[in-house]
Each structure stands twice: as structure tokens, then as C-alpha cells.
Design brief:
- The chain is an all-beta fold.
- The protein contains no helices and 37 strands.
- Strand 31 and strand 32 form a beta hairpin.
- The protein is globular.
- InterPro entries: Ig-like_dom (IPR007110), Ig-like_dom_sf (IPR036179), Ig-like_fold (IPR013783), Ig_CD22 (IPR056386), Ig_sub (IPR003599).
- It comes from Hucho hucho.
């Protein structure tokens, strides 16, 4: 199993193997039967399978739900659109990758395959139990002598190192999820897991202000939807009067995006009005590229969070040719998309390659044309280029 996030890589090998025995030579072997992963991260679920020598497997997929026709492949489930990929190796191994994990992804995942006749079908039981958790800081103790716990709803599978932040600065790294110290009411504290620092917990404090973004910047595809998430704290003796996002000031205060012409029906505030703040922008336009800030107005003061940078790009194929041959290298896109997508390449309208890299090299003919797209957003592909 491997867990990954943008800009970081954390690999964990689990050698405990759970074998599910089948009848007459049919079986599925899962690498592990239980995984606890962080919300927002990427997880891989792996298995291998066996079939009798006179059968050939033609269909393989993972599922969690059934409909009237039977198990539903995750690749066809709208809740997983653009977030799942399948990888099959030459030795009957199969890996399911789920990106941008959500708490609603917590479920039992099972692998299913079908033979060449379409009549023999086999599902590996009991499957893999995936639990997805966020991080929360829990405070125990009295006065300033308190203990903080970086809490999860399940025990993280990879025995992580916890990182503690005081007012946004790292103060401790330890394999223990506990942190004891002399605490000031004016200080804020949050925690993260090493290798996943961009997925840290909301900050906790008593008499402080803070706005913490899950990411500081995002590159997103024109026409897609983006969520800009953050958490906030404010003095406990204040009451929230208004919260909003803005890009510029108008008059004596910031201008609420929901009142800005052109954003109506284009943005949505998803925060719970207690500590979470998320701005969703749909049908992204190139003009949405800007710096965004979250603002708090309370009964006692006003506070704005740090800048969140959004860059919106369309897909454009850039061609680099060789001086001495017809060999060309093509690049898809103008900035590095934040969600580490799979790129799809088309030659003369036919799919020729899927890869996590945005580069594609080929021997170029004057009669050939090329375009690219991102998996899950095939309707937003680039214009065609040809020589």
C-alpha cells in the first residue's frame, strides 16, 4: 500500500497477507484487509487473483455498492468520478488507486473478475476495509498545564510521525500523538502527519485569530470545479457576525464575492460557520485566476486570512521538435495541475496514451494531429495541433 499527496510521498509496505480461498482454483489475495488513511490523501488497495488454467480473465474491477444488475465498478460510480484508477500487472496483480480521499469513501472494497465466457464471476471476500479520517486537536487538562492530542477516528496504518505547530511554526515532531506544554490563551496549535503536512488539523486556541488553508495555491483546469478549503479560529468571547471570501477591497472594507457581478451562480460557500471555510467555484474561467482571502467579522473585530492563489489553465499542446529528425515531444497544459491527474493523448482523434506525466513523444508525420485531455475531464480537451 502506498499513501501519497501532492508534493509528498509516503510509502508503507505491509507484509501481512490475508488470503481468501476460492473453490476450484478461484481465489483473491488482498495485501491487507484494513487501512486507515487521511482525508485528502491518496490510497492504493492491492490484491492478486488466481483462476484455473483453462480460464482467461477478461473483466476486472473494484466495487463497494450493488445495483439491480449487480456490483457497480468504482470507475462508473459518480461519487468516484476522476478519482479512481485501475492498474493490472502481468502476474494477475491488481491495484485500485483513490485520490483526494473523503470521509464518505470509508467502506469495504472488494475485487471482482469475470472469465472469457462472461458466465464465471468471482468476488474476493472479505475485501479491504478502508477508513478515512481527518485530524483534530483535542485539549485535556486545566489552566495552562494542558495536554494536546492529535486525534483521528481510526488508527493510521503507517505509524506516522506527528508534527505540532504553535502559531504556524513547527515546535515538535514525535511518533506520539500527544503534546504537553505550558499553553498561552493567545497561542494557536495544530497538528499534521509527516509526509502529509498539507493535510493538517484545524487550529485550536482560546483568545487568538487564525485562518489556515489546506493548500496555499492550486492550478485547476478551465471548466472544472475547485474547492478552496480552510479552517479558522477567533477569540472565544467574540461572536461571528459575517464570514466571506474576497479578492479585492471596495470602499472601506473587502468586497464579498457573493455580491460581485459575474460570480452569481458561479461560487458557493460550503463552510459550517463554526470553524471550516470552503469556497467552491464551478465552471472555472481563466479570469478566475486571482488571489483569494477569507475574512471574519465578529462582534469585536475583523480579521483576514493569508492569500490563497488560484491559477486556472486551459489545455494547450506545446510541441518541441528535433533539429535532425521527425521526433517531437509534446507537453499538455500551462501549469502543473494540483490533483496529479492522468493525461490522455490523442493522435488523429484516437487515444494513444494514458500517463501521469504531461509529456508525450512520438515520430511525427505531416498527416498527424495531436490533442490531449485529463482523465475525468475528457470533455475539456485541448485544441488539435498539427504541423
Amino acid at each position: 500500500m502506498a499513501l501519497r499527496t501532492a508534493g509528498s510521498l509516503l510509502v508503507v509496505f505491509l507484509w501481512s497477507v490475508a488470503v481468501v480461498l476460492g473453490q476450484y482454483g478461484w481465489s483473491v489475495t488482498y495485501t491487507t484487509q484494513s487501512i486507515c488513511a487521511l482525508k485528502g490523501s491518496t490510497v492504493e488497495l492491492s490484491c492478486s487473483y488466481t483462476v484455473p488454467s483453462d480460464y482467461t480473465v477478461t473483466t476486472t474491477f473494484w466495487f463497494t455498492e450493488y445495483d439491480a444488475a449487480g456490483p457497480v465498478s468504482l470507475s462508473d460510480d459518480p461519487d468516484y468520478k476522476g478519482r479512481v484508477t485501475y492498474h493490472r500487472d502481468k502476474k494477475n496483480g491488481h491495484t485500485l488507486t483513490i485520490t483526494d480521499l473523503r470521509e464518505s469513501d470509508s467502506a469495504i472494497y472488494k475485487f471482482r473478475f469475470t472469465d472469457q465466457t462472461g458466465k464465471w464471476r468471482y468476488t474476493g471476500n472479505p475485501g479491504v476495509t478502508l477508513s478515512v479520517t481527518g485530524l483534530q486537536v483535542k485539549v485535556t487538562g486545566r489552566y495552562q498545564d494542558k495536554t494536546l492530542t492529535c486525534s483521528t477516528t481510526c488508527t493510521l496504518t503507517d505509524n506516522p510521525t506527528y508534527i505540532w505547530y504553535k502559531n504556524g511554526t513547527i515546535v515538535k515532531e514525535d511518533t506520539s500523538s500527544l503534546y504537553s506544554h505550558y499553553f498561552s490563551d493567545a497561542d494557536s496549535y495544530s497538528c499534521a502527519v509527516k509526509g502529509h503536512e498539507d493535510l493538517h488539523s484545524p487550529a485550536v486556541c482560546k483568545n487568538c485569530w487564525s485562518v489556515t488553508h489546506t493548500h496555499q495555491s492550486i492550478c485547476a483546469l478551465k471548466g472544472s470545479t475547485v474547492d478552496m478549503s480552510c479552517s479558522y479560529t477567533y477569540p472565544s468571547n467574540h461572536q461571528i457576525k459575517k464570514t466571506f471570501w474576497f479578492t479585492k477591497w471596495s470602499g472601506i472594507d473587502a468586497e464579498d464575492l457573493s455580491s460581485v457581478p459575474g460570480y452569481e451562480g458561479h461560487i458557493e460557500y460550503l463552510g459550517d460557520k463554526k470553524s471550516d471555510c470552503t469556497l467552491r467555484i464551478t465552471d472555472l474561467r481563466l479570469s478566475d485566476s486571482a488571489g483569494y482571502r477569507f475574512r471574519l467579522i465578529t462582534s469585536g473585530d475583523k480579521f483576514s486570512g493569508p492569500l490563497f492563489s488560484l491559477t486556472v489553465t486551459d489545455l494547450q499542446v506545446k510541441m518541441t521538435t528535433s533539429m535532425f529528425s521527425r521526433w517531437v515531444t509534446l507537453n499538455c497544459g500551462t501549469c502543473t495541475l494540483t490533483d496529479n491527474p492522468t493525461y490522455i493523448w490523442y493522435r488523429n482523434g484516437h487515444k494513444v496514451k494514458e500517463d501521469t506525466t504531461s509529456l508525450y513523444s512520438d515520430y511525427f508525420s505531416d498527416a498527424d494531429s495531436y490533442s490531449c485531455a485529463v482523465k475525468g475531464h475528457e470533455d475539456l480537451h485541448s485544441p488539435v495541433v498539427c504541423e
